[in-house]
Write the structure tokens for this entry.
Amino acid sequence: MISKVGKKFYLVVVMAVSLWVLSPLGRVTGMDVLGGSLIPATPFDRQLTRAGGFQAHFEVLSGSLQSSEGLFIQAHSMRYIADPSRRDTWQTPEETQARWAGDCEDKALWLFANLKKNGYSNVRLVVGRYRSTDRNYHVWVTMADGQGNVFILDPTIQKKIWRNSDFGEGTYRALYSFDGMNRYRHNAS
């Protein structure tokens, strides 16, 4: 039987080992494909864990898969309903699906989960600021293609998918991103 201290040590070791990913060249790296540095925790872990955002493997659907554009249009069509004041509750993708409504993180998390289920791999759920001068956080999805292009999928604010390069430096400032298992910190200066 493992003691409580032994269990905690084992859990920390397993988490530390699982946080390091192989780069495309086979080297171990602590960098995200979107430029963030691997970190062990974020201030948003509790909300994201409750909403089911940390799943090492999203089960890919079989049969006819949906395009990223089709999934984005569905997420954009959901009604925007803000959380009650001072209470930020992150819905699961299933709750958002059932209500067909939510705020920015609910719509983005639904889109993120459904992109993963449809086989998209270089997808990140991002927490940051829509404009660098904003006080409130905003949540959106980014996706990288095989050529290194990064796209912003923001079903709350945008009506279409944009290239990250279409926005100025003061817009879509990522602070943290999640790939379903790992957490990354971004330099938002």
Remarks:
- The longest strand covers residues 123-131.
- The chain has one domain: 31-185.
